[in-house]
């Protein structure tokens, strides 16, 4: 009789042990599955971030907002000013137009000028024409920007438009009829805005001409 009870007790013990082992397997399997799923989500997120960074670095935060305009010098021999209208690209965050974050370069047929940018002219009431009037005739190579519809800061934001005004020293750097020029505007992040245009067949003194 005692032997019979001992056998039943052992069977009950074995059953409990088996159940504990099975529960342990289930718990371990759940933990492993959780880790694998999390790793999958982590990898997918990292892949998404990598793709997004690649897209950002390959695209520019700026885009043209109209035609590039050239202004001839007082003798009508060369283009002295280049005026580039820009705006914020769709879906991009505001761009700082302070002189610490922007690099403007001009590449002509037989010259290259880098680091022209001096900053944003945020003087009250300033216009493209006023900047040109202040700079014309000087022996300088420089570029300034002005923001229209600005809220008073140095950021180019949605619904704002900026002009980059580039002044060339025509005694040294000359854009003559039929010459081609490339303008590169690079900000801190993303690709540079690069545009190429050609000078018209001829121009008159102080004339504004559309370059493309």
UniProtKB/TrEMBL annotation:
UniProt record, GO biological process: archaeal or bacterial-type flagellum-dependent cell motility
Organism domain of life: Archaea
Gene Ontology cellular component list: archaeal-type flagellum
Transmembrane region(s): 12-37
InterPro entries attached to this UniProt entry: Flagellin/pilin_N_arc, Flagellin_arc-type
Subcellular location: Archaeal flagellum
UniProt key word Calcium: no
Keywords attached to this entry: Archaeal flagellum, Membrane, Transmembrane, Transmembrane helix
GO molecular function annotation: structural molecule activity
Main location class: other
Entry keyword annotation includes Hydrolase: no
Chain segments annotated as coiled-coil in the UniProt record: none
Family note: Belongs to the archaeal flagellin family.
Task performed by this protein: Flagellin is the subunit protein which polymerizes to form the filaments of archaeal flagella.
Protein name: Flagellin
């Amino acid at each position: 009789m005692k032997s019979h009870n001992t056998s039943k007790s052992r069977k009950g013990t074995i059953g409990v042990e088996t159940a504990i082992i099975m529960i342990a397997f289930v718990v371990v399997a759940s933990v492993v599955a959780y880790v694998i799923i999390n790793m999958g989500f982590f990898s997918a997120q990292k892949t998404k971030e990598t793709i997004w960074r690649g897209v950002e670095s390959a695209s520019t935060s700026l885009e043209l907002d109209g035609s590039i305009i050239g202004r001839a010098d007082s003798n009508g021999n060369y283009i002295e000013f280049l005026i580039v209208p820009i705006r914020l690209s769709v879906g991009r965050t505001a761009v700082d137009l302070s002189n610490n974050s922007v690099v403007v370069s001009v590449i002509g047929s037989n010259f290259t000028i880098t680091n022209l940018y001096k900053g944003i002219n945020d003087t009250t009431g300033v216009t493209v024409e006023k900047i040109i009037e202040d700079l014309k005739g000087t022996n300088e190579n420089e570029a300034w920007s002005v923001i229209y519809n600005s809220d008073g800061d140095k950021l180019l934001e949605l619904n704002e438009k900026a002009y980059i005004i580039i002044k060339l020293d025509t005694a040294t750097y000359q854009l003559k009829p039929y010459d081609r020029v490339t303008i590169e505007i690079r900000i801190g992040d993303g690709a540079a805005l690069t545009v190429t245009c050609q000078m018209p067949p001829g121009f008159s003194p102080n004339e504004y001409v559309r370059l493309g």
